[in-house]
Amino acid sequence: MTYLFQRVAVLGLGLLGGSVALAARQRRVAGRVIGANRRASVCEEALRLGAVDEAEPDFAAAARGAELVVLATPVFAMPEVVRQIAPALAEGALVTDVGSVKGFLADTLPGLLPRGVHYVGSHPMAGSHERGIAFAREDLLDGATCIVSTDSDASARERVAAFWSALGSRVVWRDSAEHDRDVGWVSHLPHAIAFAFAAALEEAPDRAFEVQGSGFRDFTRIAHSDPELWADILSTNRKALAAPLRTAADTLSHLAGLLEEENGEALERFLQTARGALSRSRVRGSGPAEDQPEPPAAAGPGGAKDQKPIT
After folding, report:
1. Per the domain annotation, does 33 fall within a domain?
2. C-beta neighbour count of 277 within 10 angstroms
3. Which of 189, 193, 236, 257 has its Cα between 20 and 30 A from that of 43?
4. CATH for 60
């Protein structure tokens, strides 16, 4: 049987890394999938779940002989991981990642790799507030957008894009700066606001929680996400996130002003404008936007990138 890659190493076996490994193995995208995690118990669980063919705590050993290495550790840990595995990488190997921030990695990782090994940044927009290999799913990437970086070798990025497509993702293209700016709006800002709202609940009376409904649960769900992981993401993307945070703060201040003025007409116009913004963003379930055609699947950085679809 012909595989896309004969040997894939997934370094970091949490929810996302475990799901990538599981999908690559079950969909026969790779001949062998090697997993690595510092904790032996996680390696044992990955083997028990059938997510990997082999698993061990030594990242360099797992990466040795791999045609594709997927970094699935926290973003700040990735440079040290690459330093460790670099001597084990053969010429022609590819290194990608699942990190939520690309600028930091694009500036750091290529210089740590041996000659003939290419880094291609990736970011599958999939996940959950749950964490750990126990929640890994073979279908986690089905229909998910995966952003692949254009500031890399053309042949290497096409092979990496083919990998994510084979796992069920819809590939779109961004350079690292575009990625960080766009994801700052549609992923990092919502998490920051959800965490801020959850922190404000310290001031809420206990009796308020007796009357919570589905809206409260929907809004606070992502604030259950891993604080260590999200502190890493938000601080790493702080420059690109600054403008969205300022805009959100200004918008909240404007809303507070409308309420103080008791201007019902202006308040309704504000809410109508907000609802209309969802149509522009093509948010699923936002009404008319669902009738719009899907942006074309990735045909390469020259075509799809220019249209800049955002999901």
Report:
1. yes
2. 11
3. 236
4. 3.40.50.720
Tell me the C-alpha to C-alpha distance, in Å, between residue 238 and each of 89, 127, 183. 32, 21, 12
Two tokens at 55? 């698993």
Q: Does residue 158 sit in the same domain as residue 231?
A: no
Name the E strands within 214-297: none
Q: Assess whether 33 and 161 both reside in one domain.
A: yes
The pLDDT assigned to 282 comes to 64
- Whether residue 51 contacts residue 164, with contact meaning beta carbons closer than 8 Å, is answered with no
Domain stops at, among 126, 153, 174: 174
CA 46 – CA 115 distance, rounded (Å):
32
pLDDT reported for residue 278:
84
Residues 157 and 210 in one domain: no
153 and 192 fall within a common domain = no
pLDDT score at 283: 59
Domain boundary, last residue among 153, 174, 195: 174
Averages of pLDDT over each 10 residues, the chain, 311 residues: 91 96 97 97 96 97 98 96 97 97 97 97 88 93 96 96 97 97 96 96 95 93 90 94 96 95 92 88 45 32 35 29
This prediction has a pTM of 0.84
Q: What order do you get walking across the sheet with 170-174 strand by strand?
A: 122-124, 145-149, 170-174
CB-CB contact of 124 with 101 (8 Å): no
